[in-house]
Amino acid sequence: MAGRLRGAIHAGELQPGARLVERALAASLGVSHIPVREAFARLEEESLVVRAPRRGARVAEVSPQTLAELSEIRVVLERLVVRRVQAAWSPEAETALRGIVDEMLAAAATGDVTAVYELDWRFHETLWRLADHQILLEVVAQMRGRIERFLRVATLALPPDALRVHAEAHVGLLEAIAGGSRSRAERAMERHISVAARRIARTGELGDDGPPAR
């Protein structure tokens, strides 16, 4: 149930700030209200849903400040990932990542935004797994909802002619990691995240739960 609601939020079917009525959702999904309530609790842990006494639940909104903070945390985590992946680099790792990037390029060539998003997620998920760091995986699991939302909106914000450029950026990122230079790879990852954050900020599609960050 949490997965279905998470997917609806990521797909924009449930917009930021939208009120979530437990019994109405249960009726529309053909389930009792208990799994819906449990899903709300799970998504609240992922910061995708907010609940308040006597006000019910709603889809979380994201302020510019929250977006900036999420980007900063992602940079810290992904730089650690880059270091660990490079330390354990192997032909198998390169083959796996290059296969994902090749699929992403093919999807971008046909304008398949959904496939590009899914492959973008798989690319980063593969890096996290290759980093072989259990605590990192636990932290990422806690942030999964926010990171997925970040990647989806960043991808959906791309005009058709920019989709190919976005996919090609992963070629450069992979080459920087495979090249072995830690500083180059870390800079490439930081730039990758910052570009996506700026694109989201321009669209304003994550919603706004407060005044712009100063």
Structure explained in plain terms:
This protein is mainly alpha-helical. The protein has two domains: 2-59, Winged helix-like DNA-binding domain superfamily/Winged helix DNA-binding domain (Arc Repressor Mutant, subunit A); 64-203, GntR ligand-binding domain-like (Four Helix Bundle (Hemerythrin (Met), subunit A), Up-down Bundle), CATH 1.20.120.530. 72% of the residues lie in helices and 5% in strands. The chain has nine helices and three strands; from the N terminus they run H-E-H-H-E-E-H-H-H-H-H-H. The protein has helices spanning 2-10, 22-29, 33-45, 64-87, 91-109, 113-130, 134-156, 160-178, 182-203, and strands at 19-20, 49-52, 56-59. A three-stranded antiparallel beta sheet has the order 1-3-2. Helix 6 runs antiparallel to helix 7 (134-156) and helix 7 (134-156) packs across helix 9. The longest helix has 24 residues, at 64-87. It is globular and about 55 Å long. The protein starts with a helix and ends in an 11-residue tail after the last helix. Mean pLDDT is 85; it is low at 205-214.
According to CATH, the homologous superfamily of the largest domain is: GntR ligand-binding domain-like
Summed over residues and divided by their number, the pLDDT gives a mean of: 85
Number of distinct beta strands: 3
| Shape by Cα distribution | globular
- Going by CATH, the architecture of the largest domain would be Up-down Bundle
Q: What order do the helices and strands follow?
A: HEHHEEHHHHHH
In the CATH scheme, the class of the largest domain would be Mainly Alpha
Can you tell me the residue ranges where pLDDT is under 50 for at least 5 consecutive residues? 205-214
**CATH topology value of the largest domain:** Four Helix Bundle (Hemerythrin (Met), subunit A)
Number of domains: 2
Pfam family, one: FCD
Keywords: DNA-binding, Transcription, Transcription regulation
GO molecular function, one term: DNA-binding transcription factor activity
Protein name: HTH gntR-type domain-containing protein
